[in-house]
Amino acid sequence: MARGGKRGGRGRGRGGNRGGDRRGGEDNRVSFDKVEKNNPKLQGYYDEVLGIPEKEREEFWAAYKRELPNSFRFTGSKGHALTVQKKLKERYVPEISKISHWDGQKVDPPVPVEWYPDELAWWMTTPKNVVRKFAPFAAFQKFLVSETSVGNISRQEVVSMIPPLVMDLKPGMTVLDMCAAPGSKAAQLLEMVHRGEEARVHKSLRDYAETDGRKTSPGPTSSAEDDEAFELDPTDNGRATGLLIANDSDYKRSHMLIHQLKRLSSPNLIVTNHDATMYPSIKLPATPENPAFNRYLKFDRILADVPCSGDGTMRKNVNLWKDWTPGNAIGLHQTQVRILVRSLQMLKAGGRVVYSTCSMNPVENEAVVASAIERCGGLEKVHVVPTSDQLPLLKRYTGLKHWKVMDKAGKVWSSFEEVEEYNAKNGATAATEKLSPGMFTPMVSSPEFAIPFDRCMRVYAHSQDTGGFFITILEKRTEFKAKPESEQKKGEPKPPISAIVDEIESMPPPKEGESVAPKIEAADALDGVFTAPDEVAPVARQNQENPETSATVNSNKRSADDEVEIDGVMSTKKLKSRQEGDEAAEPGLEDRQVHYPPPPGANLDATIRPGDMRDGIVAPQARRNKDHAQQFEEPFKYISGEHPEVKSIEEFYHLSPRFPRDRFMVRNASGEPAKTIYYTSALIRDILTENEGKGIKFIHGGVRMFMKQDVQGDGVCKWRIQSEGMPILEGYVGEERVVRLYKKSTLKKLLIEMFPKVADGGWKNLGEIGEHVNNIGMGCCVLRIEPSDDPDGFSERMVLPLWRSLHSLNLMLAKEDRSAMLLRIFNDTTPLVNNSNTSKQGKQPAPGFKIEDGEVHVDVNPSIAAAAPVGDDASEQAAEAVVKPGPYDTIVAAPKTGNELDVKAERIDKGEDTSGHEIEGQLGAPA
Ligand SMILES: C[S@@+](CC[C@H](N)C(=O)[O-])C[C@H]1O[C@@H](n2cnc3c(N)ncnc32)[C@H](O)[C@@H]1O
Q1: What is the pLDDT of residues 18-42, one digit of tens each?
Q2: Does the predicted interface ipTM exceed a cut of 0.90?
Q3: Is 376 a residue of the active site?
Q4: How high is the pLDDT of residue 401?
Q5: Catalytic residue selected from 358, 376, 456, 781
Q6: Cα Rg, the chain, nearest whole Å
């Protein structure tokens, strides 16, 4: 597809509706055009160091001056996503191809990104906000929004898709994403952890169907593909056994991450909130096969997509043209090295870390790779993996072999010796004292020690109409002891203490009766810096060193104040002064402009948890200490398979013995199932259990499997299956609670009509399922939509939760999911009909909402707005900030334009007599 200059001009012409937003917010396109795209310092430096051939330079800079194409990705691990991809090809591409520009020229429809496997990534030249606002794109826009909200599509910039693709991640692996928010790459990684799972589980169910006396869905009895998929992760009846830990040090961004990843309903995911430079070691339980007392989790794959100056994103973050300063790269270099070193430490030998930035500056790229390799013991310990055979259709440049460094005052230096000479002669300046040897091209005594920078990948805007990116793959050859940072300067934060942990971890377990203390002393001696009180010292130590990102306890409900007192580490007062001190002391902070900055208003108390906002009142816990309230997390408590509630579920749903009973979890201190029962993989259970109360900040884990429901009638199970847990559980539910549906017309009726009547002969209007649902006992059941050859039949299999109440029936689906399915399967946008009694009284705004001038407004703390990434282009995939206030299942605040958010709140209908509310509104973010 011809890409390049034409799209910018065309987009401008088609901008339509410019400034026509109801709140008069400024159109993004206007601001893109307004910013002057000329910066002699930036352009001069990159012309000098990047080695772009003279004849390409004009094209190079011209590309950075255009807006980015609009791109999105289908969720690879989900069968539905492929159906959605088919819809794009068969319905929307032909429709878009008919749209013309004002000059009569046809619009370019979306096309697959040529280098992305399986046509799962697509892009189009028409800019995002033209698609959003220009009427002929309305149906396509609706499709994108609804499929994004249900997790079948992710909006993501194409270069950002590269790092996960080169990780060679295989099902069954343990993976860590060090800096994961807002989560577009983490979503890709999670999809890879689950690759082949649907086919594997299906095969396993089929293999055991006869033994277990269960029916499986129609379809081929076995396929070579299924067998192949099975081999990828064969244990645990085909369920994925791998793990993704997605981490981010920014609490609010971590919640964006949770929202992004929750759409994938993975029981193999944990989200943590730690400073990656000191990422804590995660303990594993001793097992009969592995009795070591000090077993720590090591990873097969780690992504270090580090905070960076982000100048590769100028096409999106247009203000970088005027705000760019070389001090940003200088200020971030050290943190980047630390994150990479910590990543390498936490890898298994033979494991791989992918290091990436969206910056072009060698100080953040090749220099970081070189410094980290050097600190980890050189090329003998860490291998730079060749990349020339990866993604052959992706055009890229190799890494730089030599580079110069621009200091924050704009002076360019060739070597650190040159800086030292200058300092010796003239005295160090504020700019030169920030430079360190690791930022420069490494000097090597012999060619075999030379880092093969040609294996690094550099992607530039002009090559394939993308943003800029840097990617390197490192493989850990053997364990090593990282060298301490040599150039520790006055005022810089202490080096990570992680080295000591590695020493402790790699020690043999104590013999019976032997104390652990000598091991720790020995480990202390190795580093000579720290005294580790026990094997979990890293976390406690990190909490002391970095109170800003610490202080969560997982075990019980305590305020942060309590926590500090109970831990006896520091008083609140001390903690506060330490925080202030830390902030002031952090080098380079004053001139550092980290890409992906906190969203506007981030210093507000932006963290709202369940209950916080009920009736618009901030919960006492959140009020008590506004700085620390955000750090409270409910504990993760596993419940026994023998628990009476689990037994009641087992009995009601006739659960197969093949479904594990030892992975159900609740999130409250009492450990009793109150409202929700979650499910996790076995490895996640081991991790959450083994590390409970040890200070690791787990902020998300588990898929909601059962929700408690008010029920009428004897023998009705009060635990309904949540739709996100349905795909995991459904194959193991007994026939007694299964309803099968084959006709599109039946499903369409169930999607459009909420609570269709069953009693008083109403079942006769429900077609093929009428008789069955009339006779089935009350409560939750599994609706299996089976494929068939019938002209009114389905080509794909689907499973949905269904609720049978005394008089009626209801699909337990959020309205947005119903609408998305109606659109996808029937190309239908019919408004939904609610047959429930209370809904007939009209839509009543629930507490926290008000209607003004015919518009519904969400009466929420402005911090909701602060949590949303307004103007934060990092969250390319329509980043939405989700909070969970009051009685609502979801509140989604999505960036609109300027300072505005679209806010949508939804409560999923539960049972017959409670009507749901779905209210949309707008919320102005604080100026
Ligand atoms: C480049 S962004 C990551 C983008 C993300 N990988 C994605 O694909 O959506 C860098 C992230 O690093 C986080 N961050 C900054 N410093 C960090 C640190 N010391 N430890 C962990 N995360 C950090 C920021 O909050 C930001 O979310």
Answers
A1: 222 222 333 444 478 889 999 999 9
A2: yes
A3: no
A4: 97
A5: 358
A6: 28
**73's tokens:** 């990705």
The ranges of the chain with pLDDT < 50 are 1-30, 220, 487-630, 837-927
Alpha carbon nearest to ligand 1 atom 6, residue: 180
Q: Which atom of ligand 1 is nearest to the CA of 308?
A: 1
Cβ count within 10 A of residue 850: 14
305 annotated as a binding-site residue:
yes
Determine whether the annotation assigns residue 415 to a binding site: no
| 352 and 308 Cβ atoms separated by less than 8 Å | no
Taking the C-alpha atoms of residue 214 and residue 474, their distance in angstroms, rounded to an integer, is 47
Q: Helices then strands (H, E): number in the chain?
A: 31, 33
* 306 C-alpha to ligand 1 centroid (Å): 6
Dihedral Cα 435, 441, 445, 451, nearest 10 deg: 130
Cα 719 from Cα 653, distance rounded (Å): 10
Q: Which two tokens stand for residue 827?
A: 């190309």
Burial class (CB in 10 A: 0-12, 13-18, 19+), 424: exposed
Q: Which residue among 157, 177, 190, 249 is best mutated to probe the pocket of ligand 1, counting the most ligand atoms within 8 A of its Cβ?
A: 249
Strand residues in 347-421 grouped as ranges (E) = 347-357, 382-384, 397-398, 405-406, 412-413
Between the alpha carbon of residue 330 and those of residues 357, 399, 584, 924, the distances in Å are 14, 19, 18, 36
Q: Which residue's CA is the closest to the ligand 1 atom numbered 17?
A: 249
Q: Whose CA is nearest to atom 9 of ligand 1?
A: 183
Whole-model pTM above 0.80? no
Task: Determine if residue 179 is labeled as part of a ligand binding site.
Answer: yes
Enumerate the domain spans of the chain: 5-34+66-155, 723-831, 841-924
Kindly state the tokens that stand for 227. 């067998």
Residue-level pLDDT at 706: 97
Q: Which residue from 562, 526, 568 is spatially nearest to 544, judged by alpha carbons?
A: 568
Strand order across the beta sheet in which 676-679 lies: 637-638, 664-666, 676-679, 703-708, 719-721
* Ligand 1 lining (C-beta closer than 6 Å): 160, 178-185, 248-250, 253, 275-277, 305, 307, 335, 596
**CA gap 259, 901 in Å, rounded:** 17
Instruction: Answer yes or no: is 13 a known binding residue.
Output: no
pLDDT at res. 79:
66
Say if residue 184 carries a ligand binding annotation: yes
The residue type at 833: V
Kindly report whether the peptide bond that precedes residue 182 is cis, defined as omega within 30 degrees of 0.
yes
Task: State the distance from the centre of ligand 1 to the C-alpha of 692, rounded, in angstroms.
Answer: 25
- 63 CA distance to ligand 1 centroid (A)? 26
